[in-house]
C-alpha cells in the first residue's frame, strides 16, 4: 500500500530562482471578505489614478493635434473676431521660456547656497533651525500671497528700474518682478533636493578631503557639489516645473498683457524684461471660457504645449535618476 | 589673537569669507520671509481694524462690498471698509474640506497599494502616474474643468426642475462645488500619495515580519502596523495638501463659479451643484482693484487669512507629529 504521504519527486534542474520571491507572498484568497473588499478598493483607486492621467494626456493630445499649428508658436497674438484671425501665442511661449530661465537662475544658486550652509556649516544652531522653518514656510505660502507681496516690493520707487515708471509712479509689473517671486516658489524644492544629496554623502568623503588640506569651501565646491549633481539637477527641474506651471504670480506680476509690452528708451534685453508680458499659463487662463479672450481652441493648443514641457521635465528627472543609480553611490 | 600665525590671504581666509557669504544669504532669505509676513499684516490691518470680528461674519454680498470699497478709494469721500467674508470663508471651508477628505481616503488606499500590494508592473506604472498628476499645472486642470467637467455637470447631472427651483437666486450651470472639489482632489491626492508612500516605505521591516509571523494576514498587518507607524507622514502629507488646497487660486477661480454665494446644505442635494468662490480666487479676480487703498487693504486681509490658516495647519501638524513620534515613529 502506498503511503498517503507522497514523496515529492526529485525536482528536475529547475530554472534559476527569480529574484522576486513570488510564492512567499500569501494570496488574498484566505482573507476575510472585508479585507478583500479593501484590496479591491486599492485596485480600483490605483486604476482610477492611471485612468485620470491617461485621460488628461490623451484628451489634450487629441485637442492639441486638432488645434495646434506650428505657426502659432511663431506668430504673436493679434486682435480678431474669430479664433482663426487672432494669431498665435509666440509671445506667451517665449515668455514662459524667459520666466523659466530667469526664475531658475535666481533660485538655483540661492537654493544651493542655503542647502550648503544648512548641511556643511549650520552654525549657530538656532539660525539653522530658523532657516529650516523658513524654507518650510516658504513652501507653504500660497503663490497668490507671494504675488501680492511682490506688488508691494516692486512698486517701491527704489526698484523702479526693474519695471515701467511713469510720472514717478512705479508700475511694478515686469519679467523681473515675476521671475523674482517665481524663484521663491522654486527655492524650497531646490533646497530640499540639494540637502538630500549632500546628506547622502558619507562623512569619510569629507574627512578624506580635509586630510589632504582642502578647506571646507573647496571640499564643497570640488567634491560635494559635483557628487550631489543629480540631486541638484532634480531639484532644479522640479523647481522649473513649478515655475512654468504657476499662474497666480504671472497674472498679478507680469501684467497679463496679450503680447510683450517693452519699455521705450531702454536698451535691448532690458526693454522687454522691464516690460509687462505673458506666458503660456496666463494665455491658457485668459483664453479659457472664463477668461477675457474666450478662445478655447487656442487654450487647448497652448495647454498642450505646456503639458509637453511638463512631460519633458518629468522625463528628464527620470533620466537623471536612472543615470545616478547606474553610476552608484559612495557607500558600497 | 593668532593673527601673527594665520595668513591674511589664502585658503583659510577664503573659507571664512565663504561661510560669511552663505550666512548672509541665509539671513536674507529669513528676513525676506519676515518682511513678507510683516507687509501682509500691516497692509491688512485697516480692513481688520474697521470690521473687527465682523470681518469673519455673514452679512450682505461680498462682491458688492468689494465694489463699494474700491469706489470709495477712488473718490474724495472717506474710505469704506465694510467687508463680511463669510461667503468666501464658507466656500473655502467646503471645497478644501471636501477635497482633503476625498484625497485622504483615496491617497491612503493608493499608497498602501503602491507600497504593499501592487504587482511590480502596476507600481512601475502607478509611480510615474502619481508624479505626473502632481506636476500638471493648475491652469490645465482648470481648463479641463471648464471645458469638460463643468459642462458635463451642467448638462447631465443637474436637472431642469432643479435649475428652475433656484432660478431667481443663482444659476446652476455646472460651475459648482462638486466640480471644484473633484478637480482639487485630483490635484492634491498625488501630493499626499507620494508623502504617504515614503512614510510607509520607511517602516522597519522587522515590525511587519513580526506581525506576519504571528499569523496576521498582509492586509491587516499593513493597516495595523505600517499605516499606524507611518502616521506622522500621513499628518505631514495632509497638512501639505491642506496648505496647497487653501492657496489654490487659479483653478478654483475657473471652475468654482466665481460668485459671492454661500452654498446652503439645507437646500438638499442641489447644494453640491451651487456655485461659490473661495478666498484665494477672490484675490485673483479682483487684482485690478489693487490701486484703490481700501480695496488693497481688503485683498491683503484675505491674504493674511490665507497665511494664518496655512500657518495654523502646519503648527497643528507639527504638534501632532511630535506627540506621535514619542512612540518611535518617524516622519
**Count of individual helical segments of chain B:** 13
Top CATH class of chain B: Mainly Alpha
Classified by CATH, the class of chain A is Mainly Alpha
Number of strands of chain A: 2
Total number of distinct structural domains of chain B: 1
Spans where pLDDT lies below 50 across 5 or more residues of chain B: none
**Total strands of chain B:** 0
Structural class from helices and strands of chain A? mainly alpha
Strand percentage of chain B, roughly? under 5%
CATH architectural name of chain B = Orthogonal Bundle
Which protein chains are joined by the largest interface, and how many residues does each one contribute?
A: A-B, 83 and 81 residues
Q: What is the CATH topology assignment of chain A?
A: MetI-like fold
Radius of gyration of chain A over all CA atoms, rounded:
27 Å
Q: Look at the structure and name the CATH superfamily of chain B.
A: MetI-like
Largest sheet of chain A: 2 strands, antiparallel
**Relative helix content of chain A:** 55-70%
Poorly predicted regions of chain A are none
Largest sheet of chain B: none
List the helices and strands and how they pair.
The complex is a heterodimer of chains A (332) and B (331).
Chain A: H1 33-67, H2 90-121, H3 125-140, H4 143-154, E1 165-166, E2 169-170, H5 175-199, H6 203-211, H7 216-227, H8 229-245, H9 248-253, H10 268-273, H11 280-287, H12 296-327
Helix pairs in contact in A: 1-12, 2-5, 2-8, 2-11, 3-5, 4-5, 5-8, 6-7, 8-12, 11-12
Chain B: H1 11-51, H2 62-74, H3 86-117, H4 120-135, H5 138-157, H6 160-165, H7 177-201, H8 205-213, H9 218-229, H10 231-247, H11 250-255, H12 279-285, H13 293-325
